[in-house]
Amino acid sequence: MAYTLLFLSTIIIFTSLQTTECVYYMNRKLQVIGDDFPVLEQLGRSEKRCNDSAIFTDVRHEVKQEIWQKLVKISRHVGAAMRTARTRETALSLKTSYSTLQEIMQYLNPTVHTSDELKFEKQLQARYGRNYVCPEIYKGENYGYPFFYTGFELEKCKAVQPLEKVVTVLLNFLDTNKGFNAAAILRDIEKLYPGLTVIVANRKKIKVATFFKLKVHLYTNLTSLADGDVWNFLISSVTTPFVFIGRNLLHFTNDSRFERLIREVENLQVDIAGGATRTLNGQWDIGCQQVVLKNYSLVYHKGYDLSLHECVYCDHIHGPFMAQTNTLRSYPFSVNVSSPVLFESLFLDLQMAGKQTVVCPDSMFYVEEESDALTDYNSWISIAQKWHIVKITLDSGISVNIPCPALLRCEKIKGLAVSPCCAQRLSEMIKFVMRTCEEENIICELQEGTLLGAVKMNKVLPWEQDADITFLSANYSSVAALRNKFKAAGYQLSEGGDLWCCVDNRTAGGKFIVTTPAGWHIELYGQHHTDTEKLLSKALQPTKILFDGQWVGAPANPGLYARNRYGYEIYKHAQHWMTEGHETGWQPYHPTHFSKCPQPGHHACLDQFSADGNRQFDTL
Length: 620
What we know:
- Mean pLDDT is 84; it is low at 11-50 and 112-130.
- By secondary structure, the chain is of the alpha+beta class.
- The strands form five sheets. Strands 3, 4, 5, 6, 7, 8, 9, 12, 13, 15 and 16 form an eleven-stranded mixed β-sheet that branches. A five-stranded mixed β-sheet has the order 14-10-11-17-18. A five-stranded mixed β-sheet has the order 19-20-23-22-21.
């Protein structure tokens, strides 16, 4: 994206230059064919004008202004893209492009650039920062000395609405286990923000009349609803543009800083702004996580990649937060997700929809400690099913593995990586065959794409369609005798081709097919010789290669076999010949790029990965 924007910038500059009279005359002069005297005469006049230094200076200034204005527009788009695409590689590329654009703009007109940017910032504040709350100004490094309880102060402003018309507070105490005192929290809110509407779901009645400075709406009849339904019901009652979700809130203090959060939702044009968290035992945390949904895995990382206005961009927020009411209506809480991961589900939905969330850590909330239920895979089942996830890694490093379904029919879709559950089914088949061969003294070796997968990744290739194993043709009858053993393991072994005579005075050929209800099949081809047999005849250990944690038989030199079988650039990737629509697997190996994804945006799209290297497929 970054390089595209820079390329577009170059095109704009070139196009802008072509609009000037001087460049026009040069281009037209080159295009003149023959003795077109009227045209030459006209071009001569243009050339004379261009040689006039004063006129040329004016034209050049106009061109610079036009170029600069267009670059400002591109710069703003790049800046917006930086806040949207926050993966490390993309962010770095965009930041580099953004810096280059700034340098070009500074070169073209440093004075105008600076003043225009300041003007633009003021326009942003006027447009986004003064509808609901007043702006703030930093008073300097020494202003809050020595304890720095202050530093930023609100500016006086007009035309802002009273806070009670801007935000509604939602508190849900139905699914809490410890430390919550609804009345005490209401009392704190009343002291800090009198006049606000507070909507409460609680198991017990509260003397609402005692909070006469608040508009308290209490619901005690929602205990039969799922937690997601409760939050959605509370949100449906909100009439203000912003809503504060008091998630896991234990105490309410002046560190909440509602105005700050509202201001940044407006200024940064994000959907949600949260604060840092502090537990009762004093542990403070920035409360920001990045979430990666890729390769059928969901991974949480602590930290941030981008900050603005002293707020950090996050995919998931741990604590309470301020949200645009319309956002939570458009993306409601899931009613099928268990309470421990309800907010994980919400923020994942928002992330997948391209919504932006930030944490402003100078805002802080007292919250209960995180539930241990996050490590229970049962809590994640609904999310895993919705997004086809088989593994969740929490920011603590703890992994939660989702069991694969017992009954599984594997689909092989062009452009999508095979799911880990399906890849595991095929891997288990291959390892069963190889283990059985070893137990029965049958010589078997990986071959074709199955060996290529073992050489490149030590496992099944993520775009695999089948598996190939070779066996010594002399062991044909021994393989045929394994039908019952295969059946007991859930596989079907059937004959696929007869033996034939002869190669080097040896019986050759023979073929078997191993199938499974999951939709996979393995082809076993007979060979009159194998490397394993040759090495054993020399009292040497046969070569084995690590395949999904199991050492299995392979040609004597697996790397040489793979290179000679497939040719050039085998460590780059090419999808399966069946996927590409070829009639046989003997088509030349052409690594280029992965097929266009049939479901753009899906976390298993192969075209999001480089077609070279294996680290990007570690979780598959």
